Amino acid sequence: MPTDLTLRGVRVNNLKNIDVTIPRDKLVVFTGLSGSGKSSLAFDTIYAEGHRRFVESLSSYARMFLGQLDKPDLDSIEGLSPAISIDQKTTSKNPRSTVGTVTEIYDYLRLLYARVGIPHCPVCGKEIRQQSIDQIIDRIMTLPEGTRFMVLAPVVRAEKGRHEKVFESARKSGYVRVRVDGSMWDLSETITLDKNKKHTVEVVVDRLVMRPDLQSRLADSVETALGLTDGNVIIATVPRESEGEGEELTFSQKYACEEHGISFTELEPRMFSFNNPAGACPHCAGLGVLRRISREKVLPDDSLSLRDGAIAVNGFKSLEEESWNGPLFEAVGKRFGFTMDMPVCEFPEEARRVLFEVSGD
């Protein structure tokens, strides 16, 4: 593999028979006066020749659908790799726009990962394999006796549309309820969804209470749900008022970790997209940035007291007793061990936490 990109005798636009050697695997920047030939070298020579060679390697049928660039005027070029070009006028401040999305390389990477990727359990790291119906039922039967739960068939996963045909099909099949974006709906109601937003629709196949003799009915319900969704089923527990929040178990006939009960659906390109809810980070929603309060900016000088203006945002120059917030902060201070005249640096750790995050009471 050559270590340099070497061009000899380049005669494109303002370039007059120049020779240049550019190191590979480096970030190289062309600078110079307007009209000195920067774009001619980068776009009209290097990129044009790389694109031309790529197109020539394709069949004559494929070349019919691709634009052909003219061969640049130069003596020779060596060490050239397939090249991509990004128009300098199409830059965007949108954090979702990256080099990968602008050049559409990201689409091919997502497809590659979805087709050749091998899922592994995030807990133990073992390769995840297909799960049988018997294994799914055995796992569900381990729920504590008396547990109330629903057997859900996820027929739509994060897809735009009103999904009217999905509701109509479920209604005709005899189902009574669906869960849409986490909320329960009766199919006898009129369900109107925003067609421009992505929705998740799950048909309620059965509602059960765990008992030792439940296996036969559970098997029928699970098989029905798997048939509706091409091998996927969700078990959602329904806690009583004193039991807190319920949990959800996702099962797939395709991929599951038997040891930890973790299941995945078949790998899809959208799972590797930060622009899709199925693949986006749940914390930053795929933006790559988290908004957090900076304590240093809120309290730039913790040697000051609250009365002297330690809080430097929202117009808090001072917290007098006559102000709206003064009595509130004073009441909180009595409970958590600080006063309006105490320097913030002397606050107990619990008091500093409450000051930023509130107590929750």
What does this structure look like?
There is one protein chain. The protein is an alpha+beta fold. It has 3 domains: 4-85, Rossmann fold; 134-254, 2-Layer Sandwich (Ribulose 1,5 Bisphosphate Carboxylase/Oxygenase); 295-357, no CATH class. It is built from 10 helices and 11 strands. It has helices spanning 38-56, 60-63, 99-102, 105-116, 133-140, 164-172, 215-228, 295-298, 326-336, 349-357; strands at 4-10, 18-23, 76-78, 148-160, 177-180, 183-186, 198-209, 232-237, 248-252, 255-257, 262-264. It has a 6-stranded antiparallel beta sheet, with helices on one face. Strands 2-1-3 form a 3-stranded antiparallel beta sheet, with no helix packed on it. The chain has a two-stranded antiparallel ribbon with strand order 10-11. Helix 5 (133-140) crosses helix 7 (215-228). The protein is flat and about 85 Å long. It starts with a strand and ends with a helix. The mean pLDDT is 83.
Layout of secondary structure:
Elements: E1 4-10, E2 18-23, H1 38-56, H2 60-63, E3 76-78, H3 99-102, H4 105-116, H5 133-140, E4 148-160, H6 164-172, E5 177-180, E6 183-186, E7 198-209, H7 215-228, E8 232-237, E9 248-252, E10 255-257, E11 262-264, H8 295-298, H9 326-336, H10 349-357
Antiparallel strand pairs: 1-2, 1-3, 4-7, 4-8, 5-6, 5-7, 8-9, 10-11
Helix pairs in contact: 5-7
How would you briefly describe this protein structure?
By secondary structure, the protein is of the alpha+beta class. It contains ten helices and eleven strands.
Mean pLDDT: 83
Stated plainly, the CATH topology of the largest domain is called: Ribulose 1,5 Bisphosphate Carboxylase/Oxygenase
How many strand elements?
Answer: 11
First-residue to last-residue Cα separation? 66 Å
Structural class: alpha+beta
